[in-house]
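FORM 7B: Structural annotation worksheet

SECTION A. Query
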Amino acid sequence: MLYPQLLAAVLIYEAVHLLAEFLMKRPPGGRCNAVVIMPTRGDKDLGRFAGYVDFVVVDSEAAAERAEAAGLRWVLNKYRGKSGALATALETIDADLYVFIDDDAYPGEWIGLLKGMCGRFATAYRWVLDRLQNAFSLGGFDWMVWPATRFLYGGAMTVPAARRADAIEALKKCPVDDMALTALAERIEVLPLLIPMDPAEGTWEFSVRQAVAAKLGNLTLWAVELIYYWAWTIFAFFFPPLFAVHAIRTALRSRRALGEVDWLQVLLSPIERPLQAAIFLASAFKRCFTWRGAAVCKKCRITRQTARTSTGV
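SECTION B. Predicted structure
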């Protein structure tokens, strides 16, 4: 009977993963000419970003007026969508390091830490300020622990100037900014913290979109996660200590995000893996997802080999 062996494998992995996450250290920082750039659209209040953001990339006169009212410099997007906004910034602004953040983030110390990631692709992950959305979203941080499975989270990521031309080309080819830039990065540094973010509209739609994006980005890893989430969910009902291990992980992550334990999020931690299992299963039946009004149905075909050749790295 395989049940004891499979349960043992899940327990060992959970223990090793929890230890590895606990031991994550802040990458060493440096000093360089780093600029913080934020694409925005709609009617977001930009006041909270004053003193943190150097440039806002806008898509309308109204957004430009809001940026000016908040005391922020702005650049008009020459292309379409968020990838176009980032490409516009890279073409227009000179810097040693480009720090891209989203307008639903809450600025803080993490921006300064990203500015210190000179010469490197680096990222931090999100803590969604909606506990149900966050219960699903926290699964993404699992991938950040291991170097081989890391990705650039579009809400907080850096691009070194040495890869500027490649990044512009990749962003023009791919409408999903973090997928485009992750394809360029041979190595990604991760800050061991989570950034408070406003929730997205539509919890189910948001969650399924993220799962489909994960499938398109790395089909093998998505399949492994789908199987693992379901195995964990089944085993946990027969071996409740798994819920305790996961509660510890959620408590650790809330401290990384908020500086204190979010006990309500910890109380919700038993639903995290079952929720992730259900949403990943739902994503198995979807071929595309919608991003900024455009349907995305395939992985961005950007190779690291091509990028190294074009930059001479």
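SECTION C. Observations
The first helix runs from residue 3 to 22. The chain has a mean pLDDT of 91.

SECTION D. Sign-off
Analyst initials: ____
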